[in-house]
Amino acid sequence: MNLLVDHPFGDALAGIEVPNWCHGVWQRERLAWPGGEDRAKTVLWIQTPVLFADLRVPPPGQVGEEQGFAGHLLVSGRICAWQRPLDLKPPSGPGDAGAMYRDGTYMLECGIHDNYLEDWRQIADGTRHLAATRGDVRVADGEIQWPAEGLLELLVACGSHVIHAVRDGATASLRYGSFDAASGQVTPQWQVGARDATVAADNPWSIWHDTMAPVARDALLGSLDALPAKT
Known about the structure:
- Helix content is 5%, strand content 52%.
- By secondary structure, the chain is mostly beta strands.
- The protein folds into 2 domains: 4-14 and 125-224, no CATH class; 17-124, Lipocalin (Beta Barrel), CATH 2.40.128.320.
- The longest helix is centred in the last third of the chain and has 11 residues, at 214-224.
């Protein structure tokens, strides 16, 4: 079985790629809102030239709300709007958007629709990255059309950081792991959402962006179908 297909979008992606200052792996250091803040939750955001995934895990030993979402990012000036077709907790109201201000490896996010601040630190750049999907995703007239129903998978990787997001009917799951290019193996670290979401192992991947070595890319994609859940 061929794991890969060339991305079918041609030059259509050029018009929707996000600026380089967004790229990479970002770890949240603080969320602040009027009267409170959170520094304990593990939050990782992987951003490739179009696709992204974001995973949020409560501190070890503490009961808290798991969160995770994935899709594509729209950028207008300094305003980032996260389009979240794969989401454990879809936002209500006007959506998810923030004004972003970068200084070196740090980024400040200011809420547009809600009153909050998020401090982000870049822990890996986006030089070596991979973005891929499985499912009936289309690009037409400068817009991404995500399937409203059916199985959907999204993978983003930067360096050794990998998030694999799956939507299987009414259930969704996001898994974060560390990829070793030498061995071709992913070591799972965190998972949020359903522990038994199905993957479309018999279907090929559509590649959106790829700067990985082909051998490493193929090993990464092949390993995801057997990636065990870590609870």
